[in-house]
């Protein structure tokens, strides 16, 4: 039974081109862009005469000619082709079909196919590949699968030169990716150009969903080089996933409106897109775990090298979460631990609240802009907040600082949330006169809450950290990691 199953799997698999049914087509060129070769195949049953052309400037391959066979074929069978790598791996299955017409005790077809090299998935690592002709009866069978011993001619194409050669060397993507938030990946790749001028392909994070094969259209990055030759590139590439689920991702290169640069499928790696709430929870736990080596290096272990090693371990943990929220978590922790003397001073509450104002100005003005972004209003808002909160520096009683600090924090958070929501509604900022219509807010509650999407997640993270820092500063509680590095 097992033997039968094994034979069946072989019979019903596409077979690679047979050497005895292969002719060579070596491309040659009189200039740097246009390559060509003759297609000629002769056997007892099949004859082919034609030409193959490759334009490396537009990465287009065209082959045309006459195909004549004296093989006995079933009705409604059409001529097709497939592409195989130099190693015999199929890289393109469904070539265009051509009708076979009865002629001279056989069938003949006039074929003329034109494809982008990227569409054919012609491997960029090799300059050779196979074009193998095949017969197909739609919805029923491919000839190479149904008739294993049938003669199917192929051409071994060599001498291919590409105008652009792009080779990924090393890519780093995190395992967890937050839904509807900008994330980052780090890449090292090599480029080579045969002609002068800008690259046609651009680098991007190519992401597809495992469930349905859907793609996310992410930002494209220019590959900077206008001269011929080889170059190395290190790129930090942003991307965004619009839904949760298992995804495959890699560094991709795309010529918009034309083709994706051909790459091996094994370059795809698995990640998981999760909700922003779950990501923030895991994020916070990861930062806590990352902080433990840092903490023990300062309180238990003495020695600069051990401290450096512990910090490196912390950074490796944080590298799995390359988003702004992780940076905020880590920055606040390090700021509190290294700057605990500042937090224990009388002016600590003032500086924490002012930092929260600056963070909000930066978030709504640059990270999630909901209005015009200019430097003058940015500085004016910070200056007004600095003057308005100046009396806090005169407070000395902890209970007064605690109450005042929390009320001030609530006022700042409410102010920025209200301004952002109002701008999203009316494309303008509110005036004092709008306060007379505040009672109508309850009637618009459903519409208001609909705006609390991923754009507010960074605001929520910053507010949570700001609230913690406010209470620490108000109670003058220094970070416990107060030993000095020996």
Taking pLDDT < 50 over at least 5 consecutive residues as the criterion, the unreliable ranges are 1-12, 477-486
User: Helix segment count?
Assistant: 11
Q: How many discrete structural domains? A: 3
Largest sheet geometry = 7 strands, mixed
How far do the termini sit from each other?
Answer: 72 Å
Mean pLDDT: 76
Count all strands and give the number: 22
Overall shape: it is elongated
In terms of DSSP E residues, the strand content is: 25-35%
Residue share in helix: 25-40%
Structural class estimated from helices and strands: alpha+beta
Radius of gyration: 32 Å
In terms of quaternary structure, the protein is single chain
Structure description:
With 486 residues, the protein is an alpha+beta fold. It has 3 domains: 13-158, Sandwich (Immunoglobulin-like), CATH 2.60.40; 164-274, Coagulation Factor XIII, Chain A, domain 1; 277-474, no CATH class. The chain has 11 helices and 22 strands. It has helices at 2-11, 143-146, 276-299, 304-318, 324-338, 340-343, 348-367, 375-388, 398-426, 445-449, 457-474, and strands spanning 22-26, 28-29, 34-42, 46-55, 60-69, 78-85, 90-92, 98-99, 101-102, 107-116, 129-137, 141-142, 154-158, 164-172, 176-178, 183-193, 202-209, 215-216, 229-239, 245-255, 259-260, 269-274. Strands 1, 6, 7, 8, 11, 12 and 13 form a 7-stranded mixed β-sheet that branches. A hairpin with a 5-residue loop joins strand 17 (202-209) and strand 18. Helix 3 runs antiparallel to helix 4 (304-318) and helix 9 packs antiparallel against helix 11 (457-474). It is elongated and about 105 Å long. The N and C termini lie far apart (72 Å).
């Amino acid at each position: 039974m097992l033997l039968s199953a094994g034979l069946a799997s072989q019979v019903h698999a596409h077979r690679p081109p047979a050497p005895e049914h292969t002719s060579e087509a070596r491309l040659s060129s009189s200039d740097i862009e246009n390559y060509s070769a003759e297609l000629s195949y002769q056997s007892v049953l099949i004859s082919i005469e034609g030409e193959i052309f490759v334009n490396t400037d537009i990465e287009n391959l065209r082959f045309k000619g006459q195909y004549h066979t004296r093989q006995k074929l079933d009705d409604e069978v059409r001529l097709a082709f497939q592409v195989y790598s130099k190693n015999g791996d199929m890289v393109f299955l469904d070539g265009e079909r051509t009708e076979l017409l009865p002629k001279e005790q056989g069938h003949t077809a006039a074929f003329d196919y034109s494809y982008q090299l990227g569409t054919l998935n012609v491997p960029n690592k090799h300059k050779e590949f196979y074009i193998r002709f095949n017969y197909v009866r739609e919805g029923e069978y491919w000839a190479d699968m149904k008739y294993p011993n049938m003669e199917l001619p192929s051409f071994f194409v060599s001498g291919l030169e590409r105008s652009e050669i792009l080779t990924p060397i090393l890519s780093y993507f995190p395992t967890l990716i937050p839904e509807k938030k900008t994330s980052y990946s780090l890449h090292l790749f090599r480029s080579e150009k045969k002609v002068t001028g800008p690259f046609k392909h651009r680098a991007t994070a190519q992401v597809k969903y495992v469930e349905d094969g859907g793609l996310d259209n992410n930002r494209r990055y220019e590959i900077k080089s206008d001269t011929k030759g080889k170059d190395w590139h290190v790129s930090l590439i942003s991307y965004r996933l619009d839904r949760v689920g298992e995804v495959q991702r890699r560094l991709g290169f795309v010529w918009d409106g034309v083709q994706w640069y051909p790459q091996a499928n094994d370059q795809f790696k698995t990640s998981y897109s999760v909700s922003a709430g779950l990501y923030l929870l895991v994020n916070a736990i990861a930062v806590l775990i990352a902080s433990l080596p840092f903490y023990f290096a300062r309180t238990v272990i003495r020695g600069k090298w051990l401290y450096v090693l512990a910090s490196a371990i912390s950074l490796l943990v944080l590298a799995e979460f390359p988003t702004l929220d992780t940076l905020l978590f880590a920055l606040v922790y390090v700021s509190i631990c290294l700057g605990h003397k500042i937090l224990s001073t009388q002016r600590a509450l003032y500086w924490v609240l002012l930092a929260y104002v600056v963070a909000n100005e930066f978030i709504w003005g640059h990270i999630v802009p909901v209005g015009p972004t200019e430097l003058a209003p940015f500085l004016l808002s910070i200056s007004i907040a600095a003057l308005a909160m100046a009396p806090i520096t005169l407070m000395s009683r902890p209970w007064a600082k605690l109450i005042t600090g929390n009320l001030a924090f609530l006022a700042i958070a409410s102010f920025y949330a209200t301004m952002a929501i109002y701008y999203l509604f009316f494309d303008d900022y509110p005036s004092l006169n709008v306060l007379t219509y505040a009672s109508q807010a309850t009637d618009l509650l459903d519409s208001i809450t609909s705006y609390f999407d991923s754009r507010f997640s960074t605001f929520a993270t910053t507010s949570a950290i700001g609230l913690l820092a406010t209470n620490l500063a108000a109670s003058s509680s220094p970070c416990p990691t107060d030993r000095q590095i020996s």
